Amino acid sequence: RQCVCLVKEFLTDLPQPLFCHQDSSFEDFLCVDPIDDVECKVAHLKSLLFCLPAAHVTLVNFLLVWLHKLATPSEDRPVPLMSATQLGEVFGPLIVRPRHLTAEHLGVRARVMTSAIAHAPELTTLEDDDAAFITRNG
């Protein structure tokens, strides 16, 4: 829990959101939500993530792997600490945020983040050693 609070504080203090470094990219991320086909959704998310600045991509990779780990049952933790949906609701507003927010954006941000967390293994580009480090030390 303390780690989640620290990450939330860090993300809140960022001058720019991780997923939306420009207003136009925020709208692009919102377009992911209505896609029903999982493969298409993952492909669209992956293409958007690789359009981000390099520093954002690196941080997003580590963050998604860590959040996915929290949402996935493991041998030592058969019940996840939080579901991908819960994590999406907590982190969505911090990671997918525009300069000007409207009420219609609220649920969409959480759903986009939930999809990113649930499909982190397909979205991220971490080397096996980095992913193993996060899994062991997450």
Overall average pLDDT:
82
Overall 3D form: globular
Which residue ranges are poorly predicted, with pLDDT under 50 across at least 5 consecutive positions?
130-135
Share of helix among residues? 55-70%
Distance between the termini: 12 Å
Percent in strands: under 5%
Helix and strand succession?
HHHHHHHH
Radius of gyration: 14 Å
Largest sheet: none
Based on secondary structure, the structural category is mainly alpha
What is the β-strand count?
Answer: 0
| Helix count, DSSP H or I runs of 4 or more residues | 8
Structure summary:
The protein has 8 helices and no strands. It has helices spanning about 1-15, 25-30, 40-50, 55-70, 85-95, 105-120, 120-125, 130-135. Helix 5 crosses helix 6 (about 105-120).
Explain how this protein is built:
- The protein is mainly α.
- The chain has helices spanning about 1-15, 25-30, 40-50, 55-70, 85-95, 105-120, 120-125, 130-135.
- Residues about 130-135 have low confidence and may be disordered.
